Amino acid sequence: MTQATDTDAQAEQRDAAAQQFIAALPHCRALQMRVEEVSAGVAVLSMPWSEDLVGDPATGVVHGGAVSALMDTCGGAAVLCHPTAPLSTATMDLRIDYMRAAKPRQRITARATCHHVTRSVAFVRAEAFDEDGDGPVAVANGAFTLDRGSSA
Amino acid sequence: MKRPEPIQVVKQRRDAALTALVGGVPYIRFLGISFDRRGDELTGVLNYSDKLIGNPVLPALHGGVTAAFLEVTAIVTLSWSMLWDDLESGALDAEHLTPTTLPRLPKTIDFSVDYLRSGLPRDAYARARLNRSGRRYASVHVEGWQDNRDRLFAQATGHFLMPRRDG
């Protein structure tokens, strides 16, 4: 039923929907999140370093919680971009592994993939990178609820 | 037996240390998290503000805010338990604690959040339990609730790397 590729119109519609999705969420605005790229079941979101997000004042490293917020939003966006077009989603569980400290003053970019969906659950994997390209800062695995409107 | 210290001395020492611990972290201020203290027990308080909203339609707290709140509560509770003995014995001088003289904070290794119901647009509370607190690693469970202590809106478990204690 779903195809690996989709039309330009679909892609455009999805880009616009993703930007709107982020712009409508107050906390994402507070963290200055930006949509970099969306495709079928995949979302790439980024967030700039900010003094407000520092968790360790001795080093200026961003708090893990801010990375969680980016990963969570990115995961939700990936679910909404899935070709089966769910109406809405909510996080059921999210586990984050923090591999290393993100470099202070660097933008953090997260890439989430919705790798499997059932009628009511979406499974998501995500990775977050700083600008160093030294491998991921953090990786995440999550399960999200899916609302498909009238339950078939 | 040694005479007990006057209550003001005890409270001032403990509150000064807690303020130094919490006040030094910009992200805790940004989210509007404060801590209530009863003896050595801490309760994290997420003071509501509109910027914490994720879903404006419901409206509901952002899942990332919930995760961050639980993680902050875990880290502060862990640090507080690490400081407590030195603080009470006088090995640590609460009056002169600043973010730079405080021991380093524990680092999160992994954190797993279980979302049980959507976070309502109002204050939230959290308490952490240290299931295991060793010299190098700690395992912490955190519970978050809003109106009723028995109706959790989220819970989490995390592992933390403790800072080296050799100064």
Index terms:
heterodimer; A: 152 residues; alpha+beta; two-stranded antiparallel sheet; 8 strands; globular; B: 167 residues; Thiol Ester Dehydrase, Chain A
What does this structure look like?
- Chain A is an alpha+beta fold and 152 residues long.
- Chain A has one domain: Roll (Thiol Ester Dehydrase, Chain A).
- Chain A has three helices and eight strands, in the order ααββββαββββ.
- The longest helix of chain A has 17 residues, at 64-80.
- Chain B starts with 6 loop residues before the first helix and ends in a 6-residue tail after the last strand.
- Chain B contains three helices and eight strands.
- The model of chain B has no long low-confidence stretch (mean pLDDT 93).
- A six-stranded antiparallel sheet of chain B has the order 1-2-6-7-8-5.
- Chain B has helices at 7-23, 26-31, 63-89; strands spanning 33-38, 41-46, 53-55, 60-61, 107-115, 124-133, 137-145, 152-161.
- Chain B is an alpha+beta fold and 167 residues long.
- Chain B has one domain: Thiol Ester Dehydrase, Chain A, CATH 3.10.129.
- β5 (88-98) of chain A pairs antiparallel with β5 (107-115) of chain B.
- Chain B: Residues 61-150 form the Thioesterase domain.
Extended strand count of chain B: 8
Strand content of chain B: 25-35%
Number of domains of chain A: 1
Q: What's the rounded overall pLDDT mean of chain B?
A: 93
What is the 3D form of chain B?
globular
Strand order of the largest sheet of chain B: 1-2-6-7-8-5
Radius of gyration of chain B: 17 Å
Largest interface: A-B, 37 and 38 residues
Uncertain spans of chain A, ≥5 residues at pLDDT below 50?
Answer: none
* SSE pattern of chain A, N- to C-terminal: HHEEEEHEEEE
Order of helices and strands of chain B: HHEEEEHEEEE
CATH topology name of chain A, in short, is: Thiol Ester Dehydrase, Chain A
Structural class of chain A: alpha+beta
What overall geometry of chain A do the principal axes of the alpha carbons give? globular
The share of residues in helices of chain A is 25-40%
CATH class of chain B: Alpha Beta
Average pLDDT level of chain A: 90
| Number of E strands of chain A | 8
